[in-house]
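Now for one specimen:
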Amino acid sequence: MGEPLKKEAVVDVKSTTTQPFGLKDKIGYLMGDFGNDFFFFLVSSYLMVFYTDIFGISAATVGALFMFARLWDAFADVTWGRFIDTRPASKHGKFKPWIFRMSFPLVITGVLMFVTIPGMGDGFYLAWAFVTYIVWGTLYSTVNIPYGSMASVITDKPEERTSLSTWRTAGSMLASLIINAGAPLIVMVDNKLDANRMFMAACIFGVLSICCYMACYKMSTERIAAPAQAKDNSNFKATVKGLMKNKPLLWLLVSALLLMTNVMFIGAVNIYLFKDYFESTAALSVYGVVSSVAAFVVMPLIAPLVKKFGKKEISSFGLALAAIAYFALFFMKDLSGMGFVAVAAVGLFGTAFFNTVVWAFVTDVIDYHELLTGLREDGTVYSIYSFSRKVGQAVAGGIGGAAIAAVGYQAGAAQQAESTLNGIHTLGTLVPAIVYTLILLVLVFLYPLNKKRTQEMNAELAARRNK
């Protein structure tokens, strides 16, 4: 698969003499995304409707804010990832200390996003939204980049990395279950968002997030020691050249951009779909439960299926299932809210395959970067992947707000127009179906690391490290 671009830059990666990889690491890594996603899901599901219905900001303006903030965060991710890669590891590891240091300001800023101050005008709330949301997004990078990068230094064994990916998804789904099932019952009153309840929910989830971050810090162990890369032009040039030649990374970036666009778009539109089209926030709560249950059903299947078929192969199957389900929902306009959830469950089951193993894809492309360049740059490569996800969030934020405005949504109206309701239904069904189809095509025809090629890569890296 090619020789390193600079042999003298090869990093000596070796396991430290710590306790062996085990259940403690898995639970600790689970807790990291559990803490991350308390606010990630709260923000992706409720912040747009909070801004439109409580702050009185137009949906188009909210979309512009989301797009600008996520693009800013995308560059913050890369900057932060590169910064971490040039820092020496402490006695607690290279990545864990940043989770400990930055989680507190992150959570405090997250709570501040949902603060309402009586007597303030529209201009104040618009400025408040812009400042708090952009600061929160920047701080999120300082925690999420080291957390995501940490998987590749907890273990170097492919099957254990797949296990970490599964447990990370479990943490995400636990947060999703709590937010999607519990939050509508807390924050909605008579199918309308309540400002005081929203702030109370943010405080509760903020405390839970801090507890989860601390558990991740205490229970996870970094075993793969890689010294900090020097800040020199030769390393940087090798890094850039390796990134541009890393076809698995490039096509994973495209997939990540499309996936996050879809996930964020669905999350934003579903609030309006269930509260206005179906007039049932209870069905929205059930949707959240089904989404999490589907993921938990898939999780025990991942390890044996990946071992037999490969990550790319089972992910492609799941995406095909999701696309079919959402195309079917587009044509089933007379379904009740619960009927919609029943059909959507098939699609949620399908997407759970890709969502569960995607983090193992990331460790594969990090390894491929090492194969090409001889440089072990976990933070840099992960931050590039995160950059793509943030761009996807930016696109979804901009498109979501503009799309809701384009179909004629009127904030605060007792009843939306029939054309608006039909438009919301189309946004929540046809658009996801098309995007899932595009991701499927990229994965099947363009992403090169199938099961066989991944095994070859792992064998070559193992041979190099043992020299």
